Amino acid sequence: MKYDDIVDFHGHSCPGTAIGFKIGEIVIEKFGKSKDEEIVAIVENNSCSIDAIQFMTGCTFGKGNLIFKDYGKHVYTFIDRKTGESIRISLDKSVQELMEKFKAKREELPEKILEMNPYEIFTIKDVKVKPPKEATIYNSLRCAECKELVAEHRARIKNGKIVCIPCFKK
Ligand SMILES: [Zn+2]
Ligand SMILES: [Zn+2]
After folding, report:
1. Which of 95, 89, 91, 57 has the alpha carbon at shortest distance from 76?
2. Smallest-distance ligand from the CA of 170
3. Which residues are bridge partners to 142 per DSSP?
4. Which pTM value belongs to this model?
5. Nearest bound ligand to CA 163?
6. Which numbered ligand comes closest to the C-alpha of 148?
7. Which of 39, 45, 93, 105 could crosslink 34 through cysteines, CB 3.0-4.6 Å?
8. Which ligand is nearest to the CA of 17?
9. Residue 117 — very low, low, confident or very high, per pLDDT cuts 50/70/90?
10. How far away, in angstroms, is 83 Cα from ligand 2 center?
């Protein structure tokens, strides 16, 4: 896996993609790439780093093995469903601190980050985390108002009719 592939996918090179690339390397070395849902990622932010993580590890939003918690923290937990092994990776230095450390501009940071030993920027711990339930395929129902399809578990009842959440809220 090359960093340039990430830049291609994400659209630009930035501190986030470099941080995500370092995390991806750690995860692939430990668990390998997740073809199905065997590895689960729990990410606690929605920054640029998540694109690198999805691309490299195969933990993706679409497959349901990337879980987003909106905590604004650079914390990333990975769980192997088969072995139950989990690691928690947290970023120790903010982008501002890294800029000061290297006396570098923001656009110079990705290269600096890529050269670093991961233990200089991350705390990596073995943890015990229960994996979430595997993704299920739900039946689709048709919303009585907008006539669009909606997954059964997200459908609502309004005046005795099945509707989608946007129509329910209207
Ligand atoms: Zn970016
Ligand atoms: Zn609707």
Report:
1. 89
2. 2
3. 149
4. 0.88
5. 2
6. 2
7. 39
8. 1
9. very high
10. 42
CB 45 within 8 A of CB 73: yes
Q: What percent of the chain has pLDDT over 70?
A: 100
Identify the bridge partners of residue 66 per DSSP, sorted by sequence position: 41
Report CA(100)–ligand 1 centroid distance (Å). Answer: 20
CATH top-level class of 140-169: alpha beta
How large is the average pLDDT for residues 31-36? 95
The DSSP code sequence of 113-145 is HHHS-HHHHEEEEEE--PPPPPP-PPPEEE-TT
* Residue 15 Cα to ligand 1 middle (Å): 7
Q: Which ligand is nearest to the CA of 143?
A: 2
- Specify the CATH number for 3-127; select among 3.40.630.30, 3.30.1330.130, 3.20.20.60, 3.40.50.300: 3.30.1330.130
User: Would you give the DSSP letter of residue 36?
Assistant: S
CA of 50 to the centre of ligand 1 (A): 9
Structural contact between residues 81 and 37, judged by C-beta atoms closer than 8 angstroms: yes
* Cα of 164 from ligand 1 centre, angstroms: 33
pLDDT of residue 149: 97
